[in-house]
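[job 4417] fold queue: 2 targets
>>> target A
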Amino acid sequence: MSAIPAITLVEMTPNSVQQGSSEDTVYIKFTLTDGDADLGHDVSSSDYDIYIRDNHTDSFTGYFFPEIAQNVLDPSKGISGTCTFKMLGALIYVRPDTVHLIKGDTVHYELYIKDRAGNTSNHISTPDLYIKP
């Protein structure tokens, strides 16, 4: 395995969400590998593990992995696994113009991960998510 992390999209479910809904949740599931197993930044650092942006914005927002047990982080064996990123529907909204407020909106997400050495993975993109007004 390469010391540079790699990710592959598995799925995003569901494919639609009610904007601002506290009952809806979107899940982005991807596999990951890292040859030297140096994943998982300290939560007090300014470095994040997962970077995600929607296609309506120019910047990425960072998030942390849940704590990864130290006994599985063996640099000689690398690490691989599956991650499910959860986005609350309460935080997903249509763009605030007349057309989107009436007809709804679509968005897709781009994401990548970063290890403690600063290596960034490839970028993956999700299918479109329909946001109901």
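>>> target B
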Amino acid sequence: MGHIFSILIFTILIIGEHAFADHGNHVHEKKIDGAKLEINQEKFAVFTEGLNEGQVVAVSVKGMICDFCARGIEKIFKRDPEVIKIDVDLDFGKVLIAYATKEAIDNKDIRKKIRKNGIDVVRIEIPEF
């Protein structure tokens, strides 16, 4: 029993050290508030190039602080079959999502998916392209 307990303690210490270590891009030095910045028009033009149908949603977020956070948002939206492509702009606190559908987009679903990654949604808009 003592041997198993020692292994358990050792495992917890190793996992705990790993969980709190600085892993390159997962550094929490700044928090961008997407509501305070406008959509980067050049990036938006590149993102929407070739999109003839469907719609693009621009989501302003607050609390996205590292590349790890941004990749988590990308991953969850790429699972949605209606999403054609996604661009998460860490520097501007914006998430651009291109949907194949012309049907109304479910803002609650967008909020839920982003919130699942620990990020707050400030505003959702459908910009013209």
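[job 4417] complete. Note on B: Confidence is low (pLDDT under 50) at residues 10-28.
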